[in-house]
Design brief:
2-enoyl-CoA Hydratase, Chain A, domain 1, 2 domains, 6-stranded mixed sheet, 9 strands, 49% helix
Length: 264
């Protein structure tokens, strides 16, 4: 699939859309053109009904994403106006990942630092290879982490661990990240892609409407209390129970066969 920049790779394999951060010489640090490409690629994936799961990962064998490309900061973040423009573009990328209608999996192999961790947090699931490291060095650079990404971190690990991550600015091992709940699973490096493909295949066998609606419901539940839309959640639940897939699921269970879901 075409990509707006060579530093981002968009690839379709069966029911999986692969979005690859392709800047390995800089440990896949995200440049401005890469941030801008994220919503465009996800729009293309969502327009394809055959894509059921989207995997985000980094090129090479050393990093998922090692943050934003600091070498560009003098050009892109050297004045208040430039800082605001950069924040708007990067926040739009984070938010687009988080709002994706398909389940998203961050396949982490190596460094997952700063903005890279923000990208992983915007995904629904995070699967990491042994030896991967995680951290947010904002306090070492004198900058502030985006508000939306800070909230996602708190939603995932809770306020105490979030403060530890911010206050210490240290790098955490895969074991520490797993204990915090920062990642879902850890696997051997050589088995990482197989594990992610297996998870995507499991998702692919399930009712698309249920998967997509439960994603929306969970996202509603973790919203601020004054923006939680209970009625919308109840409509999504009713939609599942009124679907052809629900009827197919019941019938297949009674007939002791695998269901054939259509997403309707």
């Amino acid at each position: 699939m075409p990509s707006p920049t060579e530093r981002m790779v968009a690839r379709k394999e069966g029911s999986i859309g692969w979005m690859i951060f392709n800047n390995p010489d800089r440990h896949n640090a995200v440049s401005l053109d890469m941030w801008q490409a994220v919503p465009i690629i996800l729009d293309e994936f969502e327009a394809d009904p055959e894509i059921r799961t989207i995997v985000l990962t980094g090129a090479g064998e050393k990093a998922f994403v090692a943050g934003a490309d600091i070498s560009q900061f003098e050009e892109t973040r050297s004045s208040p106006d430039k800082v605001q423009l950069y924040e708007d573009i990067s926040t739009a990328a984070f938010d687009r990942i988080a709002s994706c209608t398909r389940p998203t999996i961050a396949m982490v192999d190596g460094y997952c630092i700063g903005g890279g961790l923000g990208i992983a947090l915007a995904c629904d699931l995070r699967i990491a290879a042994e030896g991967s490291t995680f951290g947010i060095p904002a306090a070492k650079l004198g900058l502030a982490y985006p508000l939306s990404s800070t909230k996602r971190l708190v939603d995932v690990v809770g306020p105490s661990f979030a403060k530890e991550i911010f206050f210490t600015a240290q790098r955490f091992t895969h074991d520490e990240a797993l204990a915090m709940g920062l990642i879902n699973r850890v696997t051997k490096k050589a088995e990482l892609e197989q594990r992610v493909r297996g998870m995507a295949a499991e998702i692919d066998t399930n009712a698309p409407l249920t998967v997509q609606n439960e994603k929306k419901i969970v996202d509603q539940i973790i919203r601020e209390a004054d923006s939680f839309d209970k009625k919308a959640c109840m409509r999504l639940i009713a939609e599942c129970f009124g679907s052809a897939d629900y009827a197919e699921g019941r019938t297949a269970f009674m007939e002791k066969r695998k269901p054939v879901f259509t997403g309707k």
